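Hey all, sorry for the wall of text incoming. These are the two entities for the joint prediction.
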Amino acid sequence: GEDVEQSLFLSVREGDSSVINCTYTDSSSTYLYWYKQEPGAGLQLLTYIFSNMDMKQDQRLTVLLNKKDKHLSLRIADTQTGDSAIYFCAESAPNAGNNRKLIWGLGTSLGVNP
Amino acid sequence: DTEVTQTPKHLVMGMTNKKSLKCEQHMGHRAMYWYKQKAKKPPELMFVYSYEKLSINESVPSRFSPECPNSSLLNLHLHALQPEDSALYLCASSQEPGYQETQYFGPGTRLLVL
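and here's what came out:
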């Protein structure tokens, strides 16, 4: 069945780079997503990558996709205290009918130390 | 503009009350979703509306009743809830149901059932 796995915690120093890793199992995935959730807030779409791409960069964020190993990573350059949040990895997988659904990882809690 | 709005932000209700959660988007999206999220867990899909018709009900108890009055609005009617229903309720929308499920989330309604 479909499964998305992430490490639960990551702690970095302010100014360092953070790398959050994710593995997924569904080979029919089309899009893979990173969402950020700050305490008490909703889910913010950070970035997404189509499964035929290897890399996507958007300002401080770099997404790397290794389709052979079904491994996705999110790199945050120059990590700031405002980046402290839970980061969810999600893959788009087939659902009933012509629908698709998001399969979610458990989330990685990123702590940034001053 | 990728904004999804939700009201109210917080809601406290007794087990005999009837209340409604509201969600609105003006992005022209044709798919809308309700999710339930417990603290520090990924969101769980409850309902999907495609072109204003209910397309997926993830075996949600009948005390939750969704409604889609038009393409911009989504309601969740609550009746006779249990304390374990206390959670963050998130609404999301996506451009088209099916192929690309890039979902944009609202800030959520934090529900407490006493």
